[in-house]
Amino acid sequence: MTPDELPVSVQFLQLITAKWVVKPMYVAAKLKLADHIKSGVTDVASLAEKTGTKADMLYRLLRALSSVGIFHEGEGQNFTLTPLAECLLDEPGSPRDMLLFVNDPVHDRAWDHLHYCLETGNVGFEKAHGAGIFDYCKTDLDFSEVFNRAMSSNGQAVHSATASVLDISSVDTLYDIGGGHGHLIKFLMDKAPSLKGGVFDLPHVVAGAEDAKYPELKIMAGSFFEDIPKGADAHILSFIIHDWDDESAVKILQNCYQALPAGGHLFICDAIINEPNAPNLGKLLDIEMIVMTTGKERTVDEFKTLIEASGFAFEGIVDTPGPHSVICGRK
């Protein structure tokens, strides 16, 4: 029986009890159970000793996760990894980091205020923590690291999808604006060895971009609401514009416009909202934007309006194999 063939009541129950799966996944990730199992520690008693947990309680958690394809239970309460369990491994690019972010208590407390967001139009994160997420990360460095790791790890798949369609053959120097630790620009520099690259972000963020493998990478600290450094003939902003309301988004793009030479390229990587009723991860991500930021996911027409309001000519949309598209502009 396929999911669509299940009784509506069962489909509904699966939706409302999603936390019964996701929170055990979060705890499994925190305990690094997948890493321990991969190293050869497979029985519950030994796993409990490794993780400082009660064996009977840990077994119940692993049994539950095995019932949905995360881990496989063998004889004698021994567990092995499944393809889904491998996603919990603490490895570069692992989706584990995104799991840790969206289930972090700091994140949860913001989502507790979704109803408040709908009533007031205000940001749930600010209600919960007294500051916007980007200002909050300046003071809570532990959460900042969780956030930045999540953005970087999620970016691996996004970067691959972007690089597969992005035509940078005519670009000499590309700056990744709001580029965090520089994973995207490094990915693109690997794809096009002649490309000169730079990453621009807040000082406490861009500090993590240092990489001996890319000594030629230009690392620049500052705010994209102020002056963006000149020197590139193209800018790329990956999942940046969706964090901001229209007025702020136009300000960022206007600063890009001022920094780019005539003919300069603008590439915006974001989800595109499609027609009503059609499945779209962006429509769910849009609720995250309601809770966490002043931003939103946008339609093609809304992106066109932003780009033209910033001075750029709108050049169209390039779809990627991932959940996002590349919106293109030209100065």
UniProtKB/TrEMBL annotation:
Q: Where is the O-methyltransferase C-terminal domain?
A: 111-312
Active site residues per record: 242 (proton acceptor)
* Keywords (A to Z) from UniProt: Methyltransferase, S-adenosyl-L-methionine, Transferase
Tell me which Gene Ontology terms the entry assigns under biological process: methylation
> Which superkingdom does the taxonomy of this entry point to?
Bacteria
Which Pfam families does the entry mention?
Dimerisation (PF08100), Methyltransf_2 (PF00891)
The UniProt record lists the O-methyltransferase dimerisation domain at 14-90
Single GO term (MF): O-methyltransferase activity
Q: Which SUPFAM superfamilies match?
A: S-adenosyl-L-methionine-dependent methyltransferases, Winged helix' DNA-binding domain
PROSITE patterns in the cross-refs: SAM_OMT_II
Q: What is this protein called?
A: Methyltransferase
